[in-house]
Inverse folding.
């Protein structure tokens, strides 16, 4: 049984064996979370999947790292090594139509080195008849259990997914943790100072601390009580840097840390004050946004910029420029080394958390909606004035509101943005993401 919330399942295999096809089949049933945010780099090669109430993060390693200059066999070997190192479960895909290849032998050998669960999957077996014809030769590999599959036509798919979810433990229910816990996860590139930051927070505040192990394989969660509040600090894994695979592992570690996103309320993203914001930072931020998480940006190692006003300003405006859509996220300059700025963090976490979980009475929301419409008339759509009838809150974390309209299709981006800003201002939600969902009153359809 694979423990922990949301293990990482890596899909490996030679080019063209059907990894993308399988990835799409597994992930496509998932309903879209939020509209894509402009400017955010989206990586289509990983996704969170829930099957039978079990959740995991699926990673298509082929997509992560396609370097055409890599020799084929070398490439798959590296992929397998990285997967052994970083993934919790491995799906090794082979091509039933092509038959067993030397690379398959080699990968099977590599995979024998780990005790992690491995699914040896023979793809492109599109029917029971083909199973009889194509599968037999793969037993030469000496693998007891082979899974035959048609990623394209779904033969064998359900069995594979059931097999996979059978070895994943259900969501842990946080037994023994206090209620109303603020879950704060720290993200950032290797070496940005995540561990130093958490240590600094713990040392600085001399708080009641206890370690909760095993929630995620490589991360240690720390429960602490500060004032009358309880916090769970989640440190995302540091990676082991090893020779040539460093780059690859770095990508893996980012993906894996994404599993932590699923269990936090607030994602604290550390940016290296010396290096500035990187593409990997914007990727993690994008993913946090898609998951509707509250965000706090910490520009760490600020001590290294001490006295350099020009560089400081440059850096902050760079952050603003790179993340224009992120106006709501507080940005703090800090130093885990000297302790500069750390005292400001808790009040910010507190106010972000309160906003993130806020609940509003329907009457106040409707008043706000009416005022917003009076101040700025809705546009005309298909010769009719757009109407907004009423609104109510349908969720928190982040706050979500539904607004009933006569034509949700007519609510263009600019008016949507206007209403979002009005809701933010009117409800005091300036530090968190919020979602407005428009629905047609008559048909109950909408976005
Ligand atoms: N007959 C059959 N064809 C399949 C199946 N799965 C994938 N294919 C085909 O195999 C080809 C390669 O599939 P991809 O999913 O792109 O393979 P990949 O492993 O992601 O390839 P790379 O992106 O190069 O790593 C495509 O033409 C698919 O249509 C299957 O189950 N049956
Ligand atoms: N000058 C300066 N150095 C810092 C600061 N914070 C961390 N460092 C240094 O940066 C290095 C990396 O810090 P870690 O806390 O290990 O970074 P991490 O993000 O946990 O790294 P991984 O475990 O690799 O993910 C260490 O040498 C720290 O001493 C800071 O605010 N200022």
């Amino acid at each position: 049984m694979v423990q922990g919330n949301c293990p990482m399942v890596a899909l490996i295999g030679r080019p063209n064996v059907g990894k993308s096809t399988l990835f799409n089949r597994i992930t496509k049933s998932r309903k879209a979370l939020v509209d894509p945010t402009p400017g955010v780099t989206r990586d289509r090669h990983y996704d969170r999947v829930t099957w039978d109430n079990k959740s995991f993060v699926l990673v298509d390693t082929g997509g992560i790292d396609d370097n055409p200059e890599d020799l084929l066999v070398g490439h798959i070997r590296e992929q397998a090594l990285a997967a052994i190192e970083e993934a919790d479960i491995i799906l090794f895909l082979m091509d039933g139509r092509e038959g067993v290849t030397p690379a398959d032998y080699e990968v099977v050998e590599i995979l024998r080195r780990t005790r992690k669960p491995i699914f040896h999957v023979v793809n492109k077996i599109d029917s029971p008849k083909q199973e009889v014809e194509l599968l037999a030769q793969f037993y030469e590999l000496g693998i007891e259990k082979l899974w035959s599959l048609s990623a394209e036509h779904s033969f064998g798919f359900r069995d594979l997914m059931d097999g996979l979810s059978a070895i994943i433990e259900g969501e842990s229910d946080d037994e023994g943790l206090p209620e109303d816990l603020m879950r704060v996860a720290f993200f950032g590139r290797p070496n940005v100072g995540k561990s130093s930051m958490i240590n600094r927070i713990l040392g600085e505040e001399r708080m009641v601390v206890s370690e909760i192990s095993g929630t995620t394989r490589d991360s240690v969660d720390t429960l602490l009580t500060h004032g009358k509040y309880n916090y769970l600090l989640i440190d995302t894994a540091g990676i082991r840097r090893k020779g040539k695979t460093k780059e690859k592992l770095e990508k893996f570690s980012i993906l894996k840390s994404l599993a932590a996103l699923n269990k936090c309320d607030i994602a604290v993203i550390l940016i290296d004050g010396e290096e500035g914001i990187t593409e990997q930072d914007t990727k993690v931020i994008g993913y946090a946004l898609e998951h509707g998480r509250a965000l706090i940006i910490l520009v760490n190692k600020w001590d290294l910029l001490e006295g350099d006003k020009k560089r400081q300003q440059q850096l902050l405006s760079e952050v603003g420029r790179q993340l224009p859509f992120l106006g709501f996220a507080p940005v703090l300059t800090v130093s885990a080394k000297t302790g500069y700025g750390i005292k400001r963090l808790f009040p910010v976490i507190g106010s972000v958390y309160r906003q993130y979980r806020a609940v509003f009475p329907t009457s106040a929301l409707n008043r706000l909606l009416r005022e917003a419409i009076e101040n700025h008339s809705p546009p005309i759509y298909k010769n009719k004035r757009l109407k907004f009838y009423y609104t109510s809150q349908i969720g928190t974390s982040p706050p979500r509101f539904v607004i009933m309209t006569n034509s949700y299709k007519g609510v263009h981006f600019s008016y949507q943005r206007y209403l979002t800003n009005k809701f933010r201002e009117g409800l005091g939600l300036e530090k968190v993401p919020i979602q407005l969902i428009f629905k047609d009153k008559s048909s109950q359809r909408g976005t």
Summary: Confidence is low (pLDDT under 50) at residues 29-43, 63-70, 212-218, 238-245.
